[in-house]
Design a protein that fits this description.
With 277 residues, this protein is an all-alpha fold. It is built from 12 helices and no strands.
């Protein structure tokens, strides 16, 4: 194991742990929604999914997207390694372009039925808190890593820019799934730049059109640019039902084994059509 690989892993793990602890404290101090599902079971399942994802990605892609950037840099692949781009500009563009790629990936997982079967695992969480940010099926995580690596190799993005994006994406996902809200005055300004919990919570609504909006993870610009932005839900967020838009709630949705099998099983009878009005 190289020193650079070790340092990257330590940096990401440290930032992850610090952000997770801070957001857990925020949730405990300013809880927005009362949670009815068994939290001990939910957290074991969501943390378990996060751990499985980490192991799968480390085995399948030992160097990850940052490693792909190193390979591109060493071989001179991609536009960023051919053009003379100032370092600061290259870093900023790396974060922007990768964030745009993740926006389109998220949209695609809702638009394509076979990808939605995988992504449903994330939306099947009957509650929303910081642990939901870890609840992605390993197949989706592998797909996401392949996409990021492809973008990195094609564009020749700098390793530091990719690392900054990976850390930012992870922190942003935990932030926007938090069971808390920013003060109204602050929310209005922060949402102009980044995805807030109140903005992303709408995406987890059981209402089809709400679930098919607000696809951004980090920057909120893309939803406005591509007209998928929804500023508010039909009902107050304290009352808004959270779960799948195309299947009734089930106790199995908080059990790890059931969640891992979910993409390979036929959905039960839909509660409402995914794109209902």
């Amino acid at each position: 194991m190289s020193t650079d690989f070790f340092n990257e892993g330590v940096t990401r793990l440290t930032v992850f742990a610090v952000v997770l602890l801070l957001l857990v404290f925020w949730e405990r101090w300013a809880t927005l929604r009362r949670q009815r599902a068994r939290q001990s079971v939910r957290w074991r399942t969501n943390l378990g999914m996060g751990a499985i994802d980490t192991v799968v990605l480390r085995v399948a892609f030992p160097a990850g997207a940052v490693g792909a950037a190193v390979v591109a840099q060493n071989h001179g692949w991609g536009a960023f390694n051919v053009l003379s781009i100032p370092s600061a500009v290259a870093l900023a563009l790396s974060v922007l372009l990768l964030d745009l790629a993740i926006y389109f990936q998220h949209w695609l997982f809702h638009a394509a039925p076979w990808l939605w079967r995988i992504h449903r695992v994330h939306h099947a969480d009957p509650e929303l808190d910081v642990s939901t940010a870890l609840r992605f099926h390993p197949v989706e995580s592998v797909f996401s890593m392949i996409l990021k690596a492809a973008v990195v190799l094609l564009l020749g993005l700098p390793p530091l820019g990719v690392l900054i994006f990976e850390i930012t994406l992870n922190a942003a996902a935990m932030f926007n799934h938090t069971n808390a809200s920013l003060p109204a005055r602050l929310e209005r300004w922060v949402r102009r730049l980044v995805v807030t919990p109140d903005m992303h919570r709408i995406h987890h609504s059981t209402h089809g059109r709400e679930a098919n909006s607000n696809f951004g993870f980090s920057l909120s610009w893309w939803d406005r640019l591509f007209r998928t932005y929804r500023p508010s839900a039909r009902v107050a967020q304290l009352l808004m039902p959270i779960d799948l838009p195309d299947e009734p709630p089930s106790p199995a949705h908080i059990r790890l084994g059931s969640v891992l099998l979910m993409p390979f099983l036929a959905p039960r009878k839909p509660a409402v059509p995914p794109a209902s009005s």
